[in-house]
Write a structure and sequence with these properties.
The protein is mainly α. The protein is 59% helix and 8% strand.
């Protein structure tokens, strides 16, 4: 019988990643909740804010957030009711629609981001040197591109133009 040691570094790496993620989510959630946003709401809004024209095709938004198409529809419905996003029809494909950040959504993010960035700095990025952070980001991108290859769906590549 082939015995795998319980102290295998692969188990340690995965366990540490899970612990860090859980700890950071717990640390960040109160500030998000006080602004009336869930983690999923914030993730959706920040992805839109960081996208070209502050909008994404609904399918790309689902792929980026890891939500199902019905899941992203429910999130966008809720954010649209709150005036934070709006749906826009695609000029070239009647079957497609975009979710776009509204001015109110951008204002909500602007109000929330100073505290959120301070929390990130205090509990995460500020604990690393500039070189460690650069290497960490590169490492995360390598892993992300394998386990969540659609995470950049709809992003504009250098030399590409924005949607018509």
């Amino acid at each position: 019988m082939n015995v795998i040691p319980f102290d295998d570094p692969r188990l340690t790496a995965f366990g540490l990643l899970a612990e860090v993620h859980a700890g950071l989510v717990a640390r960040m959630s109160p500030a998000l909740a006080s602004s009336g946003l869930s983690d999923v709401d914030f993730g959706t809004l920040i992805r839109l804010a960081r996208s070209p024209e502050q909008s994404l095709r609904m399918g790309d938004l689902a792929a980026q957030t890891g939500l199902s198409t019905s899941g992203v529809t429910r999130v966008v419905d809720r954010l649209e009711r709150d005036g934070l996003v709006v749906r826009q029809a695609c000029a070239t494909d009647r079957r497609a629609s975009y979710a776009a950040l509204t001015d109110k959504g951008a204002e909500k993010l602007q109000a929330l981001l100073p505290q959120h960035l301070m929390d990130i700095e205090e509990a995460f990025t500020g604990l690393l040197t500039e070189e460690q952070l650069e290497q960490f980001l590169a490492t995360l991108r390598v892993i992300r591109d394998v386990v969540h290859p659609c995470a950049t769906a709809g992003a504009i590549e250098p030399g590409q133009t924005v949607r018509p």
